[in-house]
Batch of 4 targets.
Target 1
Amino acid sequence: MPERMPYIAGNWKLWGTRAQAGEYCQKLLALLPEPSRRPAEVGVCVPFTSLEVAVKALAGSQVLVLAQNMNAEETGAYTGEISAQMLLELGADGVVLGHSERREHNGETDRALQEKVPAALEAGLRPILCVGESEEEREAGDMERKLRHQVGEGLHEVPDERIADVVVAYEPIWAIGTGQVATADQAQEAIAFVRALVGGRTEEAAQAIRLLYGGSVKPENAAEILAQTDVDGALVGGGSLDPEGFARIVAAAG
Ligand code: PEP
């Protein structure tokens, strides 16, 4: 079975002027152990305007810098959009795709993600694909149906040999920004289900792909969730805005 390196990514959402981004990165670096002693790969998902600052501040630190969205097209009549090539030019390592906030507020669709995920990979960006059910869907017993649909669509155009290069974050919508964290059992159950879905494509990819939990992860609850067999890390929103707390979540992966 392949060793899966834990991955902790901080999603700043709509936070961080360039000045704040630079300051944050300096503080985080001072708090993280040397790359060889880190218990997890670490990434920060920053607004477009702070990408360049974060890339410069984190150069040589092995902390990944990710954008929070991109368009699948390289160029064209898409006002306000950013391509994978533009992100690469700024030095981004990856991109978050299909975050539930973009699905809710910006009309992000599974159809668009079907193009975005392979486009990111082909360009050389490492995508984090977000999936997860709403409270109503969970209560109606629809969690598995929702995950099957989102994972199926998001990975549909990704060739089997590239599936393990995608990271999937299971983020139940009812747990995002609410303080209502999923129990460790709920996180394990849903993420094991996502792994089984990937296994429906290839068993090799299912064993290698990294699957994260996201939803109100804090230093206080991180260790229990990260200890679950199928949970390979966390996508952390609000809890990542304090570099000290974020560094403690990284330490909890050890
Ligand atoms: C997120 O932004 O992906 C997230 C999980 O947010 P929070 O940790 O604040 O719930």
Target 2
Amino acid sequence: MSAHATPIPMMSKKCGPLRGTANVPGDKSISHRSLILGAMAVGETHVTGLLEGDDVLDTAKAMRAFGATVTRHDDGSWTVQGVGVGGFAEPDGVIDCGNSGTGVRLIMGSMATSPITATFTGDASLNSRPMARVTDPLALFGAHSVGRAGGRLPMTIVGAQNPVPVRYVVPVPSAQVKSAVLLAGLNAPGKTVVIEQEATRDHTERMLAGFGADITVEDTNEGRVITLTGQPELKPQTIIVPRDPSSAAFPVCAALITEGSDVLVPNIGLNPTRAGLFTTLREMGADLTYENERVEGGEPVADLRARFSPNMVGIEVPPERAASMIDEYPILSVVAANATGQTVMRGVKELRVKESDRIDAMARGLRANGVEVEEGDDWWIVHGRGMGGVTGGAVCETFLDHRIAMSFVIMGFAAQNPVQVNDGAPITTSFPIFEGLMRDLGADIARI
Ligand code: S3P
């Protein structure tokens, strides 16, 4: 989204059953990677099902600025004419990644081992997020960076003239950091090794293998050891982007808390590095079933069926599951508010450095709407009020964060009084059809 998008205040109300089929858009993580790896391949990559949200559109613009030809066709498919590993041109202008941490961090990695310089910026949310987690390992390859205090954007990266491969133990559970290092490793001669102690989403590894890179993954006592051989010629691919489990989370959770609901969310990838929320919901007693389970493109896929679940109970979410549901804690906290008992979420420090401080943002809105929340640096507890027990009636601030906005809009469907959000504009970053899709299912959402 642009840095100065006009705020869109919204209000949602208690509504009747949500029923029907929710066709959610393409996976955001896979969409970014399709464009970036397509730009680093030699020849034309075809992409269908690309998420056309602002985050991904900003990455498409960035790839054009680095010299790739990125085209949207009338049938909604996209092609990327790549320039090859090490073939990026120096951009003329500043690269604006809007709201997207994934976009900026992966693109920084992809250019950091080429002898070019690029300056990156974003909106107020992105410009407040930490970038040292990416620029520190990029420095090991020989890249230099200059940014604002605290390693914030705007920031200039001077790519390494003579990159060297690195061995890097990722200090925080972050697929963005892991991916930035792997993408930088593409243009370093020799073997780049990335070790992660907690498994995070593995789309970069899978896609690099698909594009023909020499990449191996080994589970060892040290963690997941990923070894990439640099300077391959990446071969263009035909990519069908699966639907986004993180977007599916919203209609699924909406159905669970809205009386009488029965919603089908077809074709959702259940890659174990992404599906932690659905396991958690089932442990809470959600009526959530997997229909038509199958394997597509090497990934487990199912149609999710979610029905109103009035008797859910809070649980202690295992901390080791956090990476596989890191983007889903905001909407889980809304379900937790409608369950009985406490939902305890530990090992979630990373939530504090997302598009917003998501523990703080959710705690504020939940408390304003009558829900008790306790929090610490890397944990929080939501005290459930039972189904329909959220008082509502308050305005929630969304802090330029799409997932905070969607979570509070959905909270209104089961609250005793309407719930308002001060700004729903960020929703277009990941789920541009959210409002229409929810209304078609039967939700009562208004712009105010
Ligand atoms: C993403 C990784 C996660 C996630 C983000 C998408 C990715 O971030 O929160 O929405 O596509 O690699 P971190 O790597 O910071 O955990």
Target 3
Amino acid sequence: MKLFLDSAITDEIRKYYSTGMIDGVTTNPTLIYKSGRNPEDVYQELIDIGIPDISMEVVGDENTMIGEGRRLIKKFGNRQATIKVPCTVDGLAACRALSDEGARVNVTLVFSLAQSILSHKSGATYISPFVGRVNDNSFNGLDLIKEITATFCTQNVESTQVLAASLRDVHSVAECFTYGADIVTMPPSIFDKMYNHVLTEKGLQLFDADYAATFGKAL
Ligand code: G3P
């Protein structure tokens, strides 16, 4: 059960990584654009922080993605760098080539069971079904997770892990694990909210008040 942060804001990632609960980071061109930084400066900082697994997305046609993937692996190393490709004909061909060379590949923009099967057959280490974007279009994103994990389980698929992405709320994060996702990536703001429960707050207020009453002084 792994938690990744879906972000390119290194200060936030550093803060949450220090909790010891974060297993990796996923980025994409939109997140990089929002950070206002050069992608490779972001990747280098994440490497220096010690993030064990960093998804770095490549774009373009098959050969461009393969070339970029090789260059990123050479620059940042196989241990921490994961190459992220889209679930397209070119992306899956790049996935095959890079996986055969020993790279971890994350196939992103997965919206169907059929795409998840093709990604697995292309040697993907991770597939990223987009829960939130499926929900945005009036289908049930969690059903997609359930369908993929159930099929992978029935077919004894072990080499491809389900990395649930595009999460917008705490409930869906937890449900992804219930439905068998191996990894869930989420924005730091959602990770923060995972701590929250109204009964914890209420209970703590009572305990603090009783502690203070026991010793005759406020905390
Ligand atoms: O990293 C891919 C994914 O998590 C994007 O999420 O919120 O843009 O649909 P979102």
Target 4
Amino acid sequence: MIDVSLILPTRNEASNIAEAIARAKSVLADVSYEIIVVDDNSPDGTSDIARAIAADDRTVRCVQRVGRRGLASACIEGALAASGRVIAVMDADLQHDETILPKLIAPVLTGDADIAIGTRYVSGGGTEGWSDEREAQSQFATRLTRMLTKTELTDPMSGFFAIRADQFRGLIPKLSGRGFKILLDIVFAASGNLRVHEEPFVFRGRESGESKLDTPTAIQFLMMLYDRVLGHIIPARFALFGAVGSLGVIVHFAVLALVFQGLGTNFLIGQASAVFVAMTFNFFLNNLLTFHDVRLRGWALLKGWVSFSLVCGLGAIANVGVASYLFSEAGVLWTISALAGILVGVVWNYVMSSRFTWGQL
Ligand code: GDD
Ligand code: MN
């Protein structure tokens, strides 16, 4: 019988994975365990290294995912492949203090807790070698998360924990699986039904390799929080699409001012260039933010831009059509008519570009 399945998610950790496995093995010596490396087809060959270790050691396995990305979904696939009673998740870059691992596993194995979480924000825990800026960002995100989600967890952003395997797998249908905050995903899905144990640890500095946490990931995280709080009223993607659209209006006016006022062209040329630039700007920003998880690259990007332009062109016709009908035929106030036209245009653009440009819905 296997007590613990340890999941090590990896993306470009060729320089760390062997050491991470070795350290995990040394602290797990007292329990029966398996180690599952879930690698997202890292170009640096992390999967090959993990497989070479697995070939010599039956406690180690590698799940190599092709065409799928994301820390949260990697942990979920690891959990689905696991056979232990407890599932533990630890970063593979040596930043999580592996000596805490037995203290996370023990209370879950004995049944004293359903989930045990490594936390940086109680006494005895902390972060090592972080800039003041990174520290402040993390504290801010933690406070925001605690406030918005009303969680009692001291470190809801932690990615270092152990949980009863049957409970984890039972919650999987309810998980969003998006982004990198698997713990929050689990805690939300469980809606207060998990008995939690917290264990302080010091988050180490990274010695080699790079963090995968970039600005788009952070925005995705904010989207997840938003979804949690307001998502049932206006979906996060639509809100972001609308926000990008508002920026597009600013770009439109900037270009119009430059071309029409600055260069002194006729209005038609000014307006046409402004539409072209603003639409292109919106397409790329939406691709980067709103549809980050399914973003287009290479040739698909060019095709996407064409379909986005077509969708928005029709959206503009719908906008003008609705607004002028309301104004001239139905006698509605001009401001309300214009707003209604804009709303119809935005919803059209969102629904149609989700479907035809990014293949969603
Ligand atoms: N399979 C897979 N797919 N693994 C990934 C991916 C991915 O898309 N992105 C990152 N990982 C792996 C990394 O290789 C590493 O082992 C671990 O997940 C953490 O990724 P880092 O990029 O090193 O994250 P970090 O150090 O910035 O963030 C850590 O701190 C957060 C708290 O601030 C992580 O531990 C998070 O889990 C934690 O919430
Ligand atoms: Mn890291």
